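Hey, quick one: can you model this chain's 3D structure?
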Amino acid sequence: MRGKLILFTIIAITMTVLLMIIGCGNNKSSEVELLGAGATFPYPLYSKMFSEYYKEKGIRVNYQAIGSGGGIRQLLNKVVDFGGTDAFMSDGSLAKATAKILHIPTCLGAVVVTYNLPGNPKLKLTSDIIADIFLGKIKKWNDDRIKKLNPEVGLPDSNITVVHRSDGSGTTFIFSDYLSKVSKKWREKVGRGKSLNWPVGLGGKGNPGVAGLIKQTPNSVGYVELIYALQNNMPFATIKNKKGNFIVPSLKSVSLAAQINIPDDTRISLTDTDAEKGYPISSFTWIILYQEQNYNSRSYERAKATVDLLWWIIHNGQKYNKELEYAPLPASAVEKAEKILKSVIYNGKNIL
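Sure thing. Here's the predicted structure for all 352 residues.
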């Protein structure tokens, strides 16, 4: 009898331990997992941030890099917790939303003009020259206007082959936004957008497609993200900014592009910046979310987790920007982002 009692006691203890283990497992699987989608440009940074955030907070974040347009659509359809976009939503796009959408800047990036020339020299270019190259008006590398800027470079008497993105992208939007500001001819003939009707050139999909075409095509020129150019050791041009200074694209000069008056909603184009030492083809990238977080039977826990994540990104998360060659937010942008996050509500009550 005593032996049976001991056996029953052992079985009871074992079952209790097993139930505790199962319970712990269930708690782990029931943790909030946030879902985001959008811009491909910040994907390497977000992947690092979200991995570190999970280690610190135990909150998983699943981000699908489907492009800026896709991120906006997914948020409008309310199938994600947040979207990612390199191009801020226009007034028209915001008007289509069923509720107010907020923009939180997370870092800065830039687009560079890269090329394939003998010896890959360091070129200087101006806005009008860049526009006319991509319009097909400047056809040869030894054009007098390019030679005058680069007297020390032996420019070939060769036709310029323009390479551009064939897919819709935030990179194209930033580049065409810049050209639309600095060139009336570009603005009238091509304009700005994620996808364009290009006057000349070959199309490549994504930064890898553009880079691949440039590398295999002598005397070609195109545009890629600064990060991609740095990581792949591609040459890129120093560009004259609005203040008349030739600026080398770098993390510092990209951050300096944002040293201007930023509106309270942070929806601002930094291209052709007024900043004296800012690189002129720079841009914020944003995470977008609804101000009122109670929608589609969304829990307060999920809403709070979303806001806490974004607060961490604009503070502790910024230390990963330089490590991955993204320009960190200037203090003025962080201050604006803080105010925006403090305006996020659940059932009309502030979350933070």
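One thing worth noting: The chain has two domains: 33-108+284-350, 110-256.
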